[in-house]
Specification:
single chain; about 500 residues; alpha+beta; 6-stranded mixed sheet; 7 helices; 15 strands; about 20% strand
Length: about 500
């Protein structure tokens, strides 16, 4: 396929493949695709050229990482071809409270197009720039991992912090004023909010289950620690016993040295006796080997007999199945004959009943005409009652809609009061940014943030869109929560003057 870059790779935790990892594809700060890894931990994407992408790897309870793919500004002639970049190997670790992991707010790698090699490669210069930070993070993580019990507690605390962050972001949404829909029913934004809240609740429940699993693992590690302590105590006791036996052995050797002169003659006689014994043992061994060979031959004969018996039984089974099949065929023929006889008798009976049924049909048709006339009269009466009931319901609906409209007006008034009371960030924004419109897309923790900064004279305005790896989207204007609809209306027409 032309005009695309195909990438693939795998995700792991340590040496183990990691499943249920969300691999998100973001362009210009907006998530455009996502997949979840299976047991293999593998993923793949096909990326259209002439765009830049964030490939984000995230899982609840784990520290997210991402890769920057720079696929813009490729020469037109080169962009007409398809490219591949495979073998990405990404390792994730559980979030640890107190670990300085801000190094992962930047890409762990950049993939760029090399006009000399005519292919996509890793940006080696970027690797050198971040190497020191990544090595420091690796050493800090290794130090935390030395104490298994403490590591488990820090991972649990980090997971709780993540839950608290999700709850805080969701709470900010609840303060957003919603416009009243023209049809007095739920708006599209309200439906989207309900959907996102349900998704957040599902993820929180998953995180709760993971924390329970972590607690179970901690208890298991405590039991393992106690078992190892007991084994160490047993090992020390065995070493003490070994030293005692070595001391006894040393005393025995000293006693033997004293008796050495007396045993010189006895040794010669013992050697002669030992040679006789050795020859005797060799003869016994030869006889045992001959007996073993004979036993093996007998086993071989028994195996051949068993195989022959197996074949005989298989042949009997085959003949038995053939006989059963023939019996079944005869039964089916008999059943078919009975069915045909029953069909013939049923046809004769049907012919006899047909004349009687015709007379009965005429009588029923007359009764049906009378019944239809009565039903028509009842339907007209019911229609009139239904019209009266519908009028009553519409009146009740109107009263409820009126009450809801009043409540929404009060809510909007409260939101305006809250916005008026918020601190004015205008001067702070003007002081920290150049004149014009500035756009910036960056990663912070497990979130992708798109920020527009507008400086017009002495007035400054800041818009932020936060896309969380767990699926939530949040929008802010000068640190005050707004709706996605307000974000789109106020930023869609902005023309960026500063990158």
């Amino acid at each position: 396929q032309r005009d695309v870059l195909r990438i693939d790779g795998k995700i792991r935790e340590g040496k183990e493949k990691l499943q249920n990892v969300k691999v998100s594809l973001l362009s210009d700060g907006e998530e455009i695709a996502q997949i979840n890894t299976e047991k293999s931990g593998r993923f793949k994407y096909i990326l259209p050229l002439q765009k830049d992408y964030f490939v984000v790897f995230s899982k609840p309870g784990y520290r997210s990482k991402y890769i920057l793919v720079q696929a813009t500004n490729i020469p037109e002639g080169d962009a007409a071809f398809g490219y591949e970049f495979g073998g990405l190997d990404v390792s994730l670790f559980k979030k640890v409270k107190g670990l300085n992991d801000k190094a992962l707010d930047q890409p762990i790698a950049k993939i760029v197009y090399d006009t000399n090699q005519y292919k996509f490669i890793f940006d080696a210069t970027y690797f050198e720039q971040i190497q020191e930070e990544m090595d420091s993070l690796k050493d800090a993580l290794a130090e935390k991992q030395e104490d298994t019990e403490e590591l488990l507690a820090l991972e649990t605390a980090a997971a709780q912090e993540e839950q608290d962050e999700i709850a805080a972001l969701e709470a900010s949404k609840e303060n957003i004023g919603q416009n009243v829909s023209d049809d007095l029913g739920p708006s599209a934004e309200e439906l989207q909010k309900q959907k996102e809240l349900a998704e957040a609740e599902r993820k929180i429940e998953e995180e709760k289950k993971r924390l329970e699993a972590l607690e179970a693992e901690r208890k298991k590690q405590e039991q393992e620690k106690a078992r190892k302590a007991k084994e160490e105590e047993q090992r020390l006791a065995e070493e003490a016993e070994k030293r005692r036996l070595e001391a006894l052995e040393q005393k025995r050797k000293e006693a033997e040295a004293k008796q050495k002169a007396l045993e010189a003659e006895a040794k010669r006689k013992a050697e002669e006796e030992a040679e006789k014994q050795r020859l005797k043992e060799l003869e016994e061994k030869r006889k045992e080997e001959e007996a073993e060979i004979e036993r093996l031959k007998e086993i071989e004969r028994m195996q051949k007999a068993a195989e022959a018996e197996k074949k005989r039984l298989e042949e009997l089974e085959r003949k038995k199945k053939e006989e059963e099949a023939e019996i079944q065929r005869l039964k089916e023929l008999e059943e078919k004959r009975k069915e045909e006889e029953a069909a013939r008798l049923a046809a004769e009976e049907a012919a006899k009943k047909k004349a009687a049924e015709q007379a009965e049909k005429e009588r029923l048709e007359k009764l049906q005409e009378e019944k239809l006339a009565e039903e028509k009269r009842q339907a007209e009466l019911a229609a009139k009652q239904k019209e009266e009931e519908e009028y009553r319901k519409k009146k009740e609906a109107f009263e409820k809609a009126k009450a809801k409209l009043e409540a929404e007006k009060k809510k909007l008034a409260a939101q305006k009061t809250q916005n008026a009371a918020a601190p004015d960030k205008s001067k702070e924004i003007v002081a920290a940014n150049p004149p014009g419109i500035t756009k910036k897309v960056f990663r912070q923790g497990n979130k992708t943030i798109t920020k527009y900064t507008i400086v017009n004279g002495e007035v400054g305005t800041e818009y932020r869109r936060v896309v969380a790896d767990w699926g939530g989207k949040y929008f802010f204007k000068n640190d005050i929560s707004i709706t996605e609809r307000e974000w789109t209306q106020e930023t869609s027409s902005l023309k960026v003057t500063n990158e």
